[in-house]
Every structure is written in structure tokens, then in C-alpha cells.
Predict the 3D structure of the following.
Amino acid sequence: MRRVRYEVNGGPEVLFVEEVPAPEPGPGELLVRNEAIGVTLPAVRKVREGNAPTPLGGEVAGTVAAVGEGVSGFALGDLVTGLCFSYGYADMAVVHQAMASHVPDGADAVLAVALVRSGLVARGAFEAAAPRPGDAVLVTAAASAVGSLAVQYAKAHGASRVVAAVSSAEKADFVRKSGADEVVLYPDASWGEPVDVVLDGVGGDLLGPAVRALAPGGRLVAFSSGGGVIDAYELLARSASAIGFQMAAIARGKPELYARWREELWTLYRDGKLSPRIHARIPLAQAAQAHEIIESRSNLGKVVLVP
Ligand SMILES: NC(=O)c1ccc[n+]([C@@H]2O[C@H](COP(=O)([O-])OP(=O)(O)OC[C@H]3O[C@@H](n4cnc5c(N)ncnc54)[C@H](OP(=O)(O)O)[C@@H]3O)[C@@H](O)[C@H]2O)c1
């Protein structure tokens, strides 16, 4: 089978395809024949910042091709989605059953990778803000896979005003169509009327303006893998708080909550409250092109690799 890996000092083509034997699932693991693989900014950052050969992965979806010892609730041929951070960019990937779930009838693998992980991050970040009915919510990187679902999620869960912050006019059009009430372009000095909640998927230099966008008592949820520094005085001056959110920490520490949220996402999809947008389907062998789309910040919604 083919898999894509990242190699330091591998010349200009740092992502390349190699032929390897299919992996064997271990106890509690599924071998998934991938039909779709999500490409995310954290994986792109890994390549950009990495200094060692690195397996690439994230969310995958496809049919179960083999099951390891002790697996229950999954059978050969089932369409599933799950997380695989070790060689997910491949024709076949190993997923632990705790990180896997069935794709419901009527949905396909591409939809599953666009909805489940990004939707979990969007939902989890919103929840972390302890939202109150009528809150005004600002979402940064609002045209990203996570951001576009966060806009929809906040709209569907009682936000009085959802402000989408993006870096280009093209993205502004896109987020308006995703349901944002207002749009701001960054970097910009003014983000309009203060908001109760900021969901920040950018981090770095944007954290300062993001905190300054908060109303008194506001909450900023920082969920970007880019990290960044928050000035405690800026929080104090607004009686505001900053909260970190990482989906992997919930998946590891609160698996029942993770599983419940995952099921709820499909209900929201069926009810028309969440509608993931697919920016591009890229062949697996052209993974470098998929990374380039995200690197150039040109994606509107999810970038998906198809083996
Ligand atoms: N905490 C968690 O559990 C978790 C899990 C997955 C993802 N995330 C985070 O969620 C955010 C969105 O992820 P995603 O996979 O949905 O993103 P994505 O679809 O790959 O889109 C990334 C977007 O981030 C913005 N961006 C800001 N700085 C960037 C940079 N230096 N390089 C490239 N893009 C940059 C761009 O939008 P603009 O041009 O509009 O700024 C870009 O379009 C990321 O920060 C990611 O680290 C967090």
C-alpha cells in the first residue's frame, strides 16, 4: 500500500509517497481502508516546524478491512471514521476502536472526515466558553474547517450575534454564506462592538486583538495549535478569562463525553444545523498540494485527501 511521509532534508518534495506492507491491527485496533483523510493545520504545522522524519495523520474514514483481538461493535466492511496520528496519510490506517465510530447510512467518508473531528473541536471550544443564551460570539479563522463549523454551531446554540473574523474578502463572502451576522477582516485595528466569547483558532499575534474584542466578563477560548501568549493585564482590565481547549485531551481523559459529542454532531448534521463545506478533494499522492492550499491560507472549509 502507499503512505505519505515527511522527511527532513528530503529536497523540495518534503512530502513523498512510499510503498510499504499494510499494517496489522493490534489488540483493540481496526485496520481501515481509507476513502478520505482530513488535512488540518496542525499537520501542516508539523511539516513546517518539524525537525525529524514524521508520520502524518489526523482524521480518516473508510471501511474496516481487519480487526484486532478484543474489538467489539465493529465488523469487516463497516464504514467508520476515526483518528490516526501515526501514518493516517495512507491507503490503510490503524485506528483504535475508542477513537472510531460508525458513519451513519446516507453519509459518506468525505463528509465524515469534514464533520467529525472539526465539528468536535468547534463544539468543544464553544462548550469550553460556558456560553449563555444571547452571548455575542466571535470566531477567528472562521473560514477554516473548524471555524466554519464553529460559526454554524454558535448560531444554532443561542448566540445573539456571530462575528466571523477572516483574512480575506473571498473568505468574508464564504463566512457570510455559512451564517455569520458580521464579518471582520484581520489584521484590523477594530473588531466592532465587544463580544462575550471569542473562539480563537489562530493564536500568536492575533491573541492581543482577540482579548481586546471581549466585553467585561468575556471568555476567550484558545484552541490553536499555534499557541501564543496572553497578557494577564489585558484580561484583568476586562475582568475577562482565557480558557484552553484541546480535543485530544477530552478524547483521552473523558472518552464517554467524546463519544456523546460525536453522536450529537450527526444529529446536528441531520437536522441541517451543521453543514461542513469541502474545499477540495486531492489524490493521496498529491498530499503536498493539499498542504500547500492550507499553507497559503486559501481554503474555504475542509481539504480532504482521497486515496
Ligand atoms: N485544539 C484542538 O483540539 C484542535 C484540533 C484541530 C485543530 N485545531 C486548530 O483549529 C484551527 C483551525 O484548524 P483547521 O484544521 O480547521 O484549519 P484549516 O481548515 O486548515 O484552515 C486553517 C486556517 O487558519 C488560518 N491561519 C491562521 N494563521 C495561519 C498560518 N500561519 N498558516 C496557515 N493558516 C493560518 C487561515 O485562515 P485565515 O487566513 O482566515 O486566518 C487558514 O485558512 C487551527 O489553529 C488548528 O490548530 C485545534
